[in-house]
Predict the structure.
Amino acid sequence: MITKFATVYPGHVDLPDMGQRSTPANERRFSNEHLATVFEKTEAIARTMDELDYHAIWLAEHHFQHEGYECLPNILMLAVHLAHVTPRIRIGCGFNIAPMWHPLRLAEDFATADILTRGRVIFGVGRGYHTREVETFGAPMLDAEANRELFEEQVEIVLKAFREESFSHQGKHYTLPPVVPYRGYELRELTLVPRPIHRPVECWQPIVSASARGLDFMVRHGIKGVIGGGAATMAEGPIHGYREAAARAGRQLALGEDLCLGIFFHLAETREKAVREITPFYEEHVKMFAPLGFVPGITSAQVEAAARRGGWGAAGVPTVEHYMKTGAWFAGPPEELVAYLEDLESRFPGLQHVNMSISMGTPKAVMQEQLRWFGKEVMPRFATRAR
């Protein structure tokens, strides 16, 4: 039964123009002052969600995006701030990009945030998808196998540091601690100081490719999965794949259990009005994510067309209605969204978590309006049944 609603906010600033006929993605550049408005926007959205009793706001770690799309470089630091200005809502790391961190610095920073926020931060890790970010920090992104290998070793270190009073690690990339003399003895083990107080640490990871290797790794380490609602699009295959991986590990899960499904949504009085209003935001999403491979089914020619101003129809770039048919996007009145979520419940009986995400480029005022509308007319239908 669905009981916990959240949203994914990757940190886009308000844009002066949106959609296929507006400024192409690679031509966007904003002043530092405007890029810094992302923090006030994040706080405003978090306050709105907290007032309506949402479970969590998920933030995304990104770097160097002068285009204004993803402008939050340190989500743990921001999470501590948000916990000081809101009384209840949890703040999700969706996600800390492990290859851009030393794993022990990531573990320490999360543990600090866990303590300072009294357990309100949700830990999450990802491999990354921007070469500009990951490769700039000296980690592999173009070499996908090297990226995965590094990521898996880093996550193992982080979780070991969380869970064990003292630990050591020897792998391809890290020997922790190094064997060195220290205050009269030879160093053989480390203790993370501080460790998280609120244990066991709940850990989440995005599911994108849904490879057997990746899913087996997640299940082996007790990592829960987020499908859709961010860069990737929700799909049914990974939902079954995660349960199959759990079964291989000897765990029997209900379909949807230990997963969070993400849906892009926009409410209006009619379906037609909702589609009309969401279209420029959806098109901004395509401009941002299509060149990165996160618009399923789009061809290389359509990706090139999406990088230009206008003419998308002639190139056959998919419209938002196409992805509404797949279930990854929703546009319509609240009662239809209730029915849509009830159908998800019937198909995935173990599902508890749903991210109701708002598309790239959506202005702050519209985001707050949509979250209020959902929180008042859709969410209570499920909260009442959960009690």
Q: What stands out?
A: The chain has a mean pLDDT of 96. The longest strand covers residues 259-267. The chain is about 40% helix and 15% strand. The longest helix spans residues 144-163.
